[in-house]
Specification:
- The protein has 173 residues and is an alpha+beta fold.
- It is built from six helices and six strands.
- It has helices at residues 60-70, 78-95, 102-116, 118-128, 134-146, 151-157; strands at 11-18, 24-31, 37-43, 47-49, 55-57, 99-101.
- It has a three-stranded antiparallel β-sheet, with no helix packed on it. A three-stranded mixed β-sheet has the order 5-4-6.
- β4 and β5 form a beta hairpin.
- α2 (78-95) crosses α3 (102-116) and α3 (102-116) runs antiparallel to α4.
- It starts with 10 loop residues before the first strand and ends in a 16-residue tail after the last helix.
- The relative contact order is 0.09.
- It binds zinc ion.
- Zinc ion (ZN) binds at residues 3, 5-6, 8, 31, 33-34, 36.
- Zinc ion binds next to loops.
Length: 173
């Protein structure tokens, strides 16, 4: 690890601390050349195990790219996608396993995405859960309707006349 100020490669560790959740280590370092100080964070490498058994490092941007496709044309910003990626990575890290089956990455995306945008959630879920028929899709809509927050998704699929003066109460948070 080179010094971020002068690029010298000789740095010394002054102090190491394990984070409260035990998932990372912070090291306070000093550069032997310019003597400035900086902090590094050491994280466990998350590994994704594909269905084929092949493994690859978890890359947040790769997880986000699949979500970005589902959000095409939806009012979802890059900042929100970045937050979702962070939330997904945090959830996977908090689960505490170094190796994660690929489908669990998808599963970890579903919750945060549903809170972000119902339509994008349905699109993503239709690919992730491989909906094989319209019936599957309708079952998902019915499930969302039961929990009372399907309004925006249904409007997207079948726009209703906008004469209703009282919008349905939206769940907050
Ligand atoms: Zn330096």
């Amino acid at each position: 690890m080179h010094c971020p100020y002068c690029r010298a490669t000789d740095t010394r560790v002054l102090d190491s601390r394990v984070a409260e959740d035990g998932g990372s280590i912070r090291r306070r370092r000093t550069c032997s050349t310019c003597e400035r100080r900086f902090t590094t964070v050491e994280l466990m490498q998350l590994t994704v195990v594909k269905r084929s058994g092949a493994t690859e490092p978890f890359v947040r941007e790769k997880a986000v790219s699949g979500v970005r496709k589902a959000c095409k044309g939806r009012p979802v910003s890059e900042d929100q996608l970045a937050c979702l990626g962070q939330e997904v990575e945090d959830a996977l890290r908090n689960a505490g396993a170094a190796e994660i089956p690929a489908h669990e990455v998808g599963l970890a995306i579903l919750g945060p995405l549903r809170r972000l945008d119902e339509v994008a959630y349905l699109r993503f879920a239709s690919v992730y859960r491989a909906f094989s028929s319209a019936a599957d899709f309708e079952a998902e809509i019915a499930m969302l309707r039961e929990t009372g927050d399907v309004a925006s998704a249904v409007e997207e699929v079948a726009p209703r006349p906008s004469r209703d003066p009282e919008p349905a109460p939206q769940p907050t948070g």
